[in-house]
Amino acid sequence: MVSTHTETVLNLANEQQIIKPGDLEAAGVPRIVLTRLVRSGQLKRVSRGRYMLPDHSFGAHENLALVASKVRQGVFCLLTALQFHELTTQSPFQIWLAIPNKAQPPKLEYPPLRIFRFSGDALTEGVEIHRVEECEIQVYSVAKTVVDCFKFRNKIGLDVALEALKEAWREKRATMDELWKYAQICRMTNVMRPYLETLE
Fold this sequence. Notes:
By secondary structure, the protein is α+β, with helices and mostly antiparallel strands.
């Protein structure tokens, strides 16, 4: 029976890539099997309550799925959102995540997070739902991300914000109406006006 449990868990890990104790319960497998598999090197623990096969390596999108599964109210923003939308050559070491102003910061062992606190419409507007690694993740849209980059230009650099704006415009990934809408929401109209005028 133990070998059957082992096969069930390893098959599950192969299918889902990331598994958690609740997945075992749903399959009728005792949690102790997880401990045994980690001890024998057949599974590795990647964060609290999250396990995967040892020969499987995390890609950028899998990291997003892992964070989304742990931080339900987080929205991927700024450099991480730019990378997701393929609008930057930057490859951030941390995952950039927006959370509500008064929310407790998430405690994750892995992957490393950089937390930004958003509130009101700046938090809730422009959120897109994408499916990654069998998990739904929240990411700001291209237009909202571009505006956020201008808002946080002191943290990421004006050159990154300008590159994102030019790429989004060149690839027709954001309209002037969308950019202006989020500029108003984020109170960036005065900052962005001269750059938007050069696009028209």
